[in-house]
Amino acid sequence: xxxxxxxxxxxxxxxxxxxxxxxxxxxxxxxxxxxxxxxxxxxxxxxxxxxxxxxxxxxxxxxxxxxxxxxxxxxxxxxxxxxxxxxxxxxxxxxxxxxxxxxxxxxxxxxxxxxxxxxxxxxxxxxxxxxxxxxxxxxxxxxxxxxxxxxxxxxxxxxxxxxxxxxxxxxxxxxxxxxxxxxxxxxxxxxxxxxxxxxxxxxxxxxxxxxxxxxxxxxxxxxxxxxxxxxxxxxxxxxxxxxxxxxxxxxxxxxxxxxxxxxxxxxxxxxxxxxxxxxxxxxxxxxxxxxxxxxxxxxxxxxxxxxxxxxxxxxxxxxxxxxxxxxxxxxxxxxxxxxxxxxxxxxxxxxxxxxxxxxxxxxxxxxxxxxxxxxxxxxxxxxxxxxxxxxxxxxxxxxxxxxxxxxxxxxxxxxxxxxxxxxxxxxxxxxxxxxxxxxxx
Length: 441
Ligand code: NIG
Ligand code: FE
Known about the structure:
The protein has 441 residues and is α/β, with parallel strands linked by helices. The chain contains 16 helices and 17 strands.
């Protein structure tokens, strides 16, 4: 196509690094990136229209409304964070200190703290307060290069608050440049008022809350929602299968009910207690992803690797909890599986908005190569939320979500840590972070 008029041309980048294909990349293919030295990306109407060596891209262009010189910088796809508990009120800094002194996460939960203490704060918070607190996290995510994130509810655990969380997520989706993919997680913990009769809560979830969420529709021409999600208030349903949360049988019943109502499925599996069986269950129910996978036995990882379900590992969680036990990402990839990584952003185990930090951890403790970690944080992460055809790689036709790093080579993302290398963020073709500063209205 000669003589193209484009909205934005990014040129002369030291390097462009991107996975390719609709994905997910599995096994050895996770390490394959397209690398272009001296590259350019041309963008029109929010989509990539050309990518390649600068001279080749420029030969196709007649006019560019804006030009960004990316000398000394690396261009990568915007990060996709496929597992967050984005929306809550307050913090749990006191618990963090208790854990440093030896209390465990599950002990604190069983004593009515943990998730339940955030539930109390969240129930008491107004929609406005939730907007303000959550928006500051979204800004921090964007500043660290995340352009799309999954966001779970699960700090309401009663319909009124869960609905408020879905509404605030929907409003934020419209008010913030990042795209949010909502997941209903009413099965995050058994709420205090049901401690004596958890079965009654499971029943309530299945009989009342799930059908309510499934019936809730937001206008499709409003904030972003792909046609297959059809304006649903939540695209996915997730369950925390764990000792002290939901057992395997309860998890199965909730997920089967969700599936029948048209939700995609996700599972918190093997975060602490080994071999409860949530991973084979996720595979059997054809969940889109199964997440955490810290204590998963090798035979369950192999089963997962042979399935269509994507494994999502969350290295921020063992780091945040200082357990020292990380998911066996290397084994999943070596067995031919598709792996994504995420922050697990939440006030208990991992309050971290940074995907580059997850890349730094995944390369060191899950033994991923820097290329595999980039694929896990972009293309495979997009696939873990059903958006691999739209985002997660830089290719003509895909949404123009990308990041310019102040580094000459993508491997610096893994190599360096605890600092922010993100210089510029482009979301749907619009520059929303410039020189490390937020810029949107
Ligand atoms: O993924 N495990 C359950 N949910 C979160 C923690 C939530 C919290 O502690 O508030 C997790 O680690
Ligand atoms: Fe989680």
